[in-house]
Design a protein that fits this description.
heterotrimer, A mainly alpha, B alpha/beta, C alpha/beta, A: mainly alpha, B: alpha/beta, 2 domains, 7 strands, 15% strand
């Protein structure tokens, strides 16, 4: 019973935080500096790891499907396979997972320490709502940066797949025919689909990590516990939401 | 807090990301997501749409000109509503065919160019269609073909092989030729006569050959037959393999040549060939008339045109269907 | 060097604080029990008591960081648990540990409040911040981050940050702990100046007896969550209540059985 109550509490407080942060949206223009700072942390500094990992994800996709398909004769479809899988599924999910691990944990740690060391209390006595100063710029920044991270993940993944397809002896498909196949079976709506998913994931990750950070109680030891909880919750939510958002976007 | 370098980096990063999204969009959708060309719609009725589904391509001479907007049942047939780009026109005598591409069953609608003289189809009009054998029936036919070939070649094999008790095939043929020397000579003479007539431009066939326009059409037809033949070549190669197998596997002499009855048949057929050529020379029978009678010319022309169109269809349908058509033609 | 009399404060109506039968429990543990008191505008009220007697919790009720279990806390007749009260009355709380924003420099810590509420141009903010820093001898620390400061400096930055807010009500949680006697005297001078020149209401939580007796208009003593004394500092010289006397003049009795245990 208690875990269930905690989950419901978490959902409730997260939604409350969302509503509060959203109600301060008009203050966003004068928080431009903070917005840029968060964009830098969420987008710019996260990009290298996203690029490296999606390169290998794309490569291994090509390798696995080429290996499985060499006798069945669908290896000419590797371009479409890697392209669609990266754009619709792995690009957004990888970007969101890395966001949770790299940015989500940092957000949870920072806000938890601010809470533990009474900085959040100080903000409240100064009549500066934490939702406005700490949460809103992060949410806005993740919305702006997630499409950029995702499209990079997609493209780098595609190129990773193309390189593997060319230089693996049992596949050896030219990049030209790889990309021709990718273009034949893909539409921009596939990519757009992935971008929408990424926005949902990224927004959720940041919101949940902010909420868990701000709800930290107790001493410094709780900061670590909050970070763990934030990352685990984010990962679970990414995969659960993935299913539902995918289904919703298919329009059933 | 706000550091100009950071702002610039974030700005650059964001612009780069948006540019990449734009490039992806242009490459994958050709800029047709938000301002999608509504085009116009035409209707194509088929016995069966097979693997065709909404969103499949409509191509003319291999170039994408639209897509399948909807598929629906209309009475006793299936209809596909085709959305055609507004700048692409279709001749009213063009035909639509459903083409199945590859083994996994992606399809598209192929529309031929039609003739120069015809009008353009209006939006909402119905296009003529032609059905092609679908993959499954082609496969079944190829299977039958294989069986028949096997039987025929088995017989042939025994004919060539012999079993040592009687003269070989060549001897037998020699004998036949000797026995029928008169007939053959006469046949050759008749043929000579026919060729002369043809040369002089007498009769429909003569006209046909001397008429340069018809000649061109014939040449085009032959070229297309050739390309068809090339595709059939691999098929023949397979047949060769079967022959080889038969040869290697079977040691018995063919009963065909051995058999006195078969020999008689051959004799009789040679005789009838002679009588046919006799008749031809005299202008009897249909073929004779063709040669001697001008009135057949028109029929031949229309026949040529039909053959031409059939060959167009053959070309468009790709190798697998081509084999199907060849198979149909053979049996 | 500016003195506390140069404080950058505009005249603002001082706020009053009223506690009516305030009780607060965390779970089953009662931290405050039926505390009633009122602080009049412009008064310096010093709240004393041993550690764990609920002094800090009481302060947090006044700024709305804690909600009463029973009773009512009001500031200028506005309910303190209502978040909009903070918009109506400017209150500054000097936290015991400073509660500085660790990601910002000292300067930005001080400038945050006027910037967020757009109280002045960047020039005006700079003026205010530099004056507040000078009063607390912090000019050289302006561009340091809190991690580079000692505990005492952090406390001074926290006070400077509260000054920049130009509050109607100042709440100090142990302002002089960790400070040397000279700086403690400066703090006492600041508190007194705020009252004299700007009529600011102050509530000081401390167990520094000299500070309390030096500046207080009235003193309250909390023992175990109950208010056991309320009166002028002069009344503390001969307290009627033996518990208060014990707190103010603790006798070190080496014959106490507790110390005996330590020896063995």
């Amino acid at each position: 019973m208690r875990p269930l109550v905690r989950v419901l509490e978490g959902i409730g407080s997260t939604l409350q935080l969302l509503v509060r942060a959203a109600s301060y949206t008009p203050t966003l223009p004068r928080q431009f500096g903070r917005f840029i700072e968060q964009c830098y942390l969420i987008g710019y500094t996260t990009m290298p790891i996203v690029a490296i990992l999606s390169f290998f994800i794309g490569s291994v996709l090509a390798l696995q499907s080429g290996h499985a398909g060499q006798n069945v004769g669908y290896k000419q479809f590797i371009g479409a396979l890697v392209g669609l899988t990266m754009a619709r599924e792995l690009g957004p999910v990888m970007a969101a997972v890395l966001l949770a691990g790299r940015v989500g944990s940092a957000i949870a740690a920072e806000l938890a320490s601010m809470k533990v060391y009474q900085e959040v209390d100080a903000l409240e006595t100064m009549n500066i709502p934490p939702a406005r100063m700490l949460v809103l710029p992060r949410l806005a920044a993740v919305l702006a940066m997630m499409p950029v991270l995702t499209i990079m993940a997609d493209l780098v993944g595609w190129f990773g797949g193309a390189i593997v397809a060319k230089y693996t002896h049992f596949i050896s498909i030219d990049p030209t025919s790889y990309f021709a196949n990718l273009r034949q079976y893909m539409d921009f709506s596939d990519v757009l689909n992935g971008l929408i998913k990424a926005e949902v994931f990224g927004f959720t990750v940041v919101l949940v990590c902010c909420n868990i950070g701000l709800n930290t109680r107790g001493g410094p030891r709780e900061i670590g516990a909050s970070v763990t909880r934030a990352v685990v919750t984010s990962l679970i939510l990414i995969l659960v939401l993935d299913f539902f958002v995918t289904k919703a976007l298919m329009g059933d | 807090m706000q550091n100009p370098q950071q702002t610039a980096r974030v700005g650059l990063f964001f612009v780069l990301g948006m540019a990449l999204i734009w490039v992806t969009f242009e490459t994958l959708s050709g800029g047709k997501l938000w301002f999608k060309d509504k085009g116009y719609e035409i209707i194509a009725g088929f016995e069966s749409l097979k693997e065709l589904k909404e969103g499949d391509d409509v191509r003319m001479a291999g170039v994408k000109i639209g897509d399948v907007a909807r598929t629906r049942l209309a009475g006793r047939r299936a209809e596909a509503v085709l959305r055609i780009d507004s700048d692409k026109k279709i001749k009213s005598d063009a035909h639509a065919t459903i083409v199945t591409q590859g083994l996994i069953g992606t399809g598209y609608v192929s529309i031929d160019l039609g003739s120069d003289a015809a009008d353009y189809l209006r939006p909402g009009a119905e296009i003529r269609t032609r059905s092609t054998p679908d993959l499954n029936s082609v496969m079944a036919q190829i299977g039958d073909l294989g069986k028949k070939l096997e039987g025929a070649l088995g017989n042939l094999g025994s004919a060539f092989g012999g079993d040592g008790k009687s003269p070989g095939l060549l001897q037998k043929v020699d004998q036949l030729v000797a026995e029928n020397r008169d007939n053959l000579r006469q046949t050759t003479a008749n043929l000579q006569q026919i060729t002369d007539k043809v040369n002089k431009g007498e009769g429909s066939l003569g006209r046909l050959i001397n008429d340069s326009k018809l000649h061109d059409e014939l040449l085009a037809g032959i070229a297309e037959i050739k390309s068809g033949a090339a595709q059939a070549k691999s098929f023949i190669a397979n047949a060769q393999a079967i022959v080889d197998q038969v040869k290697a596997g079977k040691g018995t002499l063919g009963t065909l040549v051995f058999d006195q009855k078969a020999g008689d048949d051959l004799k009789a057929s040679l005789a009838s060939l002679r009588s046919v050529s006799d008749k031809l020379a005299r202008g009897e029978g249909t073929l004779g008339k063709l040669i001697s009678d001008d009135s057949m010319l028109r029929d031949v022309r229309s026949l040529m045109k039909k053959a031409d169109r059939a060959l167009d269809g053959l070309d468009e349908s790709g190798p697998i269907t081509a084999v199907g058509v060849v198979a149909n033609g053979l049996f | 060097m500016p003195t506390p009399s140069d404080l950058p404060l505009p005249p603002a109506a001082a706020a009053s604080v009223t506690l009516e039968h305030l009780s607060k429990s965390f779970g089953t543990f009662e931290v405050l029990h039926d505390v009633s008191l009122s602080v009049t505008p412009g008064e310096i009220f010093v709240l004393m008591g041993p550690s764990g007697s609920g002094k800090s919790v009481l302060l947090k009720h006044i700024v709305g960081l804690e909600q009463p279990t029973a009773g009512r806390v009001s500031v200028d007749r506005h309910d303190a648990s209502d978040p909009t009260t903070r918009e109506k009355v400017r209150m500054a709380l000097v936290f015991q540990a400073g509660a500085l924003f660790n990601s910002m420099t000292v300067y930005d810590n001080l400038a945050l409040y006027p910037r967020e509420h757009r109280l002045a141009s960047e020039e005006g903010i700079r003026d205010k911040v530099m004056r507040a820093l000078q009063i607390l001898s912090l000019e050289n620390a302006a561009h340091k981050v809190p991690a580079e400061l000692s505990g005492g400096m952090k406390k001074r930055v926290a006070i400077a940050r509260a000054l920049v807010m130009e509050p109607q009500l100042m709440l100090y949680d142990e302002p002089t702990s960790e400070l040397d006697p000279v700086m403690s005297a400066t703090i006492a001078e600041i508190i007194a100046t705020l009252k004299e020149q700007y009529h600011v209401t102050s509530m000081v939580v401390t167990h520094d007896r000299d500070l309390a007796l030096g500046i207080a208009d009235r003193v309250g003593i909390l023992l175990g969550g109950r208010l056991v004394f309320l009166g002028p500092p002069s009344a503390l010289s001969q307290p009627a209540d033996p518990r208060v006397a014990d707190f103010l003049n603790p006798r070190i009795d080496l014959q106490n059985p507790r110390f005996k245990q330590l020896e063995t």
